Amino acid sequence: MTSVWLRYLTGADIDSLGVTEADIVGAVEDVLGDHGRGQVVFEPRTHLVPDNGGKGHFNILRGHLSAKQVSGVKVVGDFVGNFERGLPSEMALILLLDPDTGMPRAIVDGTMITEARTGAMTAVGAKYLARPDSRVLGHIGARGTAWWNVVLLDSLFDFAEIRVTSKRPESREDFGRRLSERLGKDVRVCATAEETLDGADIQVEASRLVEPEPLVRREFLRPGTFLVPYGTISALELTLLDDVDKVVVDDWRESQSGNPRFGALRPQLNAGLLTADGVHAEIGDIVAGKKPGREHDAERILFWHRGLSTTDVAVANMILARAEASGVGTMLPYR
């Protein structure tokens, strides 16, 4: 019988490959175009909620990229209190598979990939939906994907002002300091959501709430605002959509899937305030050129992304190709 080996890539292996911000954004933008052209197989996410006293849950995401002939499954935990143990809130593993034989090709540390592809989704959404002259970023949240949101957005817009906040003062102060060092510009650390968001051109809500709380309010959405809310538990004022001109999602089916508690706009969905008729487009249709993105400067646009398995597979597959070319990783015998 033919022996089968697979490559195991740790976080340190991935760090050694020199993957750039442009590489990650490019991989995500490319696969979003594939979505719009119908060149992916995208399965609904499922949740596994252990009997652990509410400490956290797991998300299981599955997808296939037809153009690149790779399939993948990601298991990622969402454990808000992990910071108390010095651990990331979201830790993940991605299994890449050969769709012709079912053979496993690689096991990849998906923790950085989860954070980076989420930030890249925010950045690609802004590329098509924010005003090109956006100068002020307001960001709620300081852990996990927050870093990549700010860094990748700034790589596209070179903001004149960046404002950040989070629930814990020590967390937001450290976040602002690290961002300032990384970006080479001042980052304003704010005490409240209002101070952070009000008047910002691009607004990102990546909070880690345990119960819904209206941190993002209607009056913060000035003409021309681009808003990206994607906290697991909603941080939006229930009637906020009354002041939004366009709603864009990553995938409408995915917006409705999973536990009805989870998702930034699930209260609006559950109350019938967001329906299919109220969604302008999926982001893949915009990237593929099938539907328009921003059409005038005054539009207030909301982009809700819950996380596409295909973006995980695309970034992991790009990293695997780099690793194979460089001989990076540990080869493991499968059988």
From TrEMBL:
Keyword Lyase set for record: yes
Enzyme class: lyase
SUPFAM superfamilies recorded: NAD(P)-binding Rossmann-fold domains
Record-level Gene Ontology MF annotations: ornithine cyclodeaminase activity
UniProt cross-references to InterPro entries, sorted A to Z: NAD(P)-bd_dom_sf, ODC_Mu_crystall, ODC_N
Keyword terms of this UniProt record: Lyase
Gene3D superfamilies linked: NAD(P)-binding Rossmann-like Domain, ornithine cyclodeaminase, domain 1
EC annotation from Swiss-Prot or TrEMBL: 4.3.1.12
One GO cellular component, as annotated: cytoplasm
The UniProt record lists the keyword Lyase: yes
Protein name listed in UniProt: Ornithine cyclodeaminase (EC)
Organism (species): Amycolatopsis camponoti
Lineage: Bacteria, Bacillati, Actinomycetota, Actinomycetes, Pseudonocardiales
